[in-house]
## 1
Amino acid sequence: MGSSLRELRERRRSVSTTKKITRAMELIAASRIIKAQNAARAALPYTRELVRAVSALASVHDIEHPLLVDVEQPKRSAILLVTSDRGLAGAYSANVIKAAEQLHAKLTAEGQEVVMYITGQKGVAYYDFRRRPVQQSWTGFSDRPTYDNAREISKVLLDQFLRPTEDGGVDQLHVVYTRFVSMLTQTAAAVRLLPLVVEDAPAGPDRGSEELNPFYDFEPDAETVLDALLPLFVANRIHSALLQSAASELASRQRAMKSATDNAQSLIEQLTREANQARQAEITQEITEIVGGASALSE
Amino acid sequence: MSRPPLQVEVVAADRLVWSGESVNIIARTVEGDIGILPGHEPLLAVLVPCVVEIVTADGRSESLAVDEGFISVAHNRVSVLAQVATLGHEVGLEEARREASTLEARAMQGDADDDELHHLRILQAQIRAGERATT
């Protein structure tokens, strides 16, 4: 009896230590998520201006550029998979890896060879464990990506895309990341990044006639501007995918840690109740023994 | 001047660096230096790493170092887009000078690759912008 009481108390103590840890992780994730959201918001003006510049070009010229050419029979595709470096974020990495696997299967079924690029330790571990080849991976920045990270990645991917298919280049580039819809909803999404699809100016009633595309002067000329602009556009898309994934990762982690904390709390309550019962039982037994002993003596 | 001042935004990839009104902007495109006054015709130009100087509506001058990017002008709105943009007073002069001198030494010996040369040009622009901000 005495030993079971001690065991219960020990378990309770260990659960409450765990609870402290998960609670701390929850709070950390909650404070970082605000930073991540701010970072995502701070990148918006750049995206807006970039889109405006690209659509200005698109509306003036019939543009032709290697980054825009759609290959009819793509032979090889690259997938950039954005995962987290650390676990304890619920199904975050599992979901995005699953989405990548679906895309992988789809592309393979179309007869394409698939080349994997991965960011985040979790994705790397998944592929390593299954001994599947990964062309290149980047780790160490999943919860606070900087633009430099995105730039480095886009440089490698653009090189790969612009290389002829015979030399190991790819015809398409897909990005699989987690879209941050809200604090409660994050969905894994697969988008085709290259070849780029340039939409004509988001012309429309909502922007007013004053915003109609003017006749731009291009310096030095439209082709050069386009040449310089499109790589930036790609880097920007990757940057935004990384930022969204970071926010999603933190949101998932916060949620996972919150439910872990809640579970620990209910476990603690249950263990406390059991420990109290055991203690009460012990006391009752002692009293019974004393009373029994005393009455045996008096007889 | 009768024309209304330019509405300027300088945006880097990860933040809005500067915004405000300006009466004159000087930047360096691949073709050479360019000055933009209010009422400039619509323009989209490629920038090289350089110092962008913005003369504000109240006559002050603001210097920024930018990495390669763009300047676009339309409807009296100017936006300077750069992957990296640094305000003059944000530049760590000491550190930039130190880094620049090591890179310069390498460049003189012909050891520097394109990336390093590019980085050197950015550093030089940052140093210029930083010096202007402190004087």
Note: Residues 201-210 of chain A have pLDDT under 50 and may be disordered.
## 2
Amino acid sequence: MQVAVIKYNAGNIKSVMLALKRLGLEGNLTDNPDEILNADRVIFPGQGEAKSAMKYLKERELDKVIQSIENPFLGICLGLQLLCSHSEEGDTECLGVFDANVKKFPNELKVPHMGWNIGSLSEDIIFNGIQSPAYFYFVHSYYAELCDQTISETEYMLPFSNVLHKDNFYAIQPHPEKSAEAGEQFLKNFLFEL
Amino acid sequence: MLTKRIIPCLDIKNGRTVKGVNFVELRDAGDPVELAKIYAEEGADELVFLDITATNEKRKTLVELVEKVAEAINIPFTVGGGISTVEDVSVLLAAGADKVSINSAAVRNPKIIKEMADEFGSQCIVVAVDSRRVGDKNIVHTHGGSKPTELETEDWIKKAVELGAGEILLTSMDHDGTKSGFADELMSKISSLVNVPVIASGGAGNMQHFCDTFTNGKSDAALAASIFHFKEIGIPELKAFLKNNNIPTRI
């Protein structure tokens, strides 16, 4: 199986590559459009800032590549936010795969939302074998609002989209590669069950 | 609900764990990777590796260790000990560390916090502070808590957060090693003062102490070393205890 991991100007790629390795796969870190389009699975990870990330993707026309992918696709953390319609971070137009807007957390509690929190589970195949309550590891200051494509919610000051799903596109706000058993099962489902 | 984190801390010298470790399951009690795997499996929420190597080979052995740990475990971990430059941070993050913690270097040169946060994001920059009571003041100490500075703990932490610290690891040198409980009054004061998570360190002796620091101390996470290494407290039993006491806990 070919797993492409999209290379762009956002950090935290290494831990995704290592998570794939633990599952017996060698990820291909690439910004080559053909390699991305032809991969069996595409992972779009990232930790960083929305505006500079979108700028980078557009300059290389990776935005169009991502929008035209037909195989299973997984956005993680900033990857999820960039798949939404718009982000308050830098007032950025995003890729528009999901209908949600991305907003900054209010300042009532500590921001970033950092640590382990519960994601609700639903019937989707991506949650197969994950035990409830499912804890995931989060680090983020912006969140995607709930929308029709939300298949898992998490609550921190307010409920937000933990996992989004539309056609071949999945996205998850926390870091499955750092989320112990639940995260590992989630990645396994994405890689081997879809 | 966001849970309170339990963080075992491993002291590392020349790529090996120091201080005694009492794990019968370990083939090699000095191997940090094996120990890290066991803690991750037992339900530790995060790990901290504190490198106390003083040799020139330090960086190389530490980077090799970080790479092995990152490959072996599926929970986040922080690396600290002698980190002083943006380049140091870059190398450790690239090797797979999720966060780094800086201590004396930040006191010597506070703007390094900003440089690191600007480059890598606040979320991966932990500022570790060793505080000791001097008269009626809390005073920041460096060099493993041995050297007093001019700084008051409250002022320094506020400044560190303004400069971009994403998390504070606060050790009470007065409580460290006493097993009499965390310095909850100080923790609570600091936690209310800043809008980033505070990790309590120093003084853990029993399970109630963890409960206390999460409630009275308003701590977001609690760190301990020897009580975990010597199995005085097992992580699964600690977490069950916290849950029974209505502390939000990942089990």
Note: The two ends of chain A are 13 Å apart (CA to CA).
